[in-house]
Amino acid sequence: MADSLPSLAFLGAGSMGGAILRGVLASGVPVDGGITATNRTTEKAASFDGLDGVTSIALSERPEGNAEAVSGARIVLVGVKPAMVPELLREIAPHLTADTIVVSLAAGVTLQTFADHLGTGARVIRSMPNTPSTVRKGVTGLAAGAAATADDVALVRRLFETVGAVIEVPESQIDALSTISGSGPAYVFLLIEEVTTAAIGMGFTEADARLMVEQTFIGATALLDASGEDPAELRRRVTSPKGTTERAVAVLQDAHLDRTFAEAAAAALARAKELAAGA
């Protein structure tokens, strides 16, 4: 694999597109041909001013900015709101070259939508990053369109690995992936909220409760990462026979957490299918 990335264009460099752009820069991987980012307003465009190797375009000032951005880019990342994708694709289609790789960051927009507007020969990859990508601890799912080559996927994988881990899946699994890695951070934050409330209920101040709980979750995941152990094994090491943790874990297991999380993921998947159908 080459030690650099090819030229990149971020169309709609919002929170996720911007996170990936900054992740590429933070990784130190050179980008041959540079990076171009477009946003609708001068205010959003200004947030990328001064970043080395980045050309930031405000579409309010340069209406042809998207066409300019893609004309020199090998990888084009589409980060506009899902409802705006078809119009954007119609706008950029005449300016794409045969080897341009188009990467979707738009939730719920299918590969078929891209093929309908760009042609079946367009090399398209659908991605599903999550919010921890903003701190380079993300998980991104990638689903390749029929015309994307193995080299295309490897190149895009390398791009997303600058902001975390990458999993390649068929498009049929992208929605399911979103219920775990996409929605999953919210599940963790909810657990932190509830354990913090329990700590406050035991008499701790809110500040002490937050510090205790948040650092416990951060520390536990850091230990999991550093040890390489299975989480079940790490749980067993904390759970002394006939001890306090064993009693607490028994209560949690009696609450059928396995069933609860399965039902939560199923509910998220059902909603993803509704959204894809336009409901």
Q: Can you characterise this structure?
A:
With 279 residues, this protein is α/β, with parallel strands linked by helices. The protein folds into 2 domains: 8-173, 3-Layer(aba) Sandwich (Rossmann fold); 184-276, ProC C-terminal domain-like fold (Orthogonal Bundle), CATH 1.10.3730.10. The chain has 12 helices and 8 strands. α2 (42-46) links the parallel β2 (35-39) and β3. It is elongated, with a radius of gyration of 22 Å. The model has no long low-confidence stretch (mean pLDDT 95).
CATH architecture of the largest domain: 3-Layer(aba) Sandwich
Let me know the average pLDDT: 95
Secondary structure class reads alpha/beta
Order of SSEs: EHEHEHEHEHEEHEHHHHHH
Shape: elongated
* CATH class designation of the largest domain: Alpha Beta
| Percent of sequence in beta strands | 5-15%
**Biggest sheet: strand arrangement:** 3-2-1-4-5-6-7-8
Return Rg in Å. 22 Å
Low-confidence stretches: none
* Biggest beta-sheet profile: 8 strands, mixed
Give the terminus-to-terminus CA distance: 42 Å
Could you state the oligomeric state of the chains shown? single chain
Count all strands and give the number.
Answer: 8
CATH topology of the largest domain: Rossmann fold
Q: Name the CATH superfamily assignment of the largest domain.
A: NAD(P)-binding Rossmann-like Domain
Q: Count of helical segments?
A: 12
**Overall structural domain count:** 2
Helix fraction?
40-55%
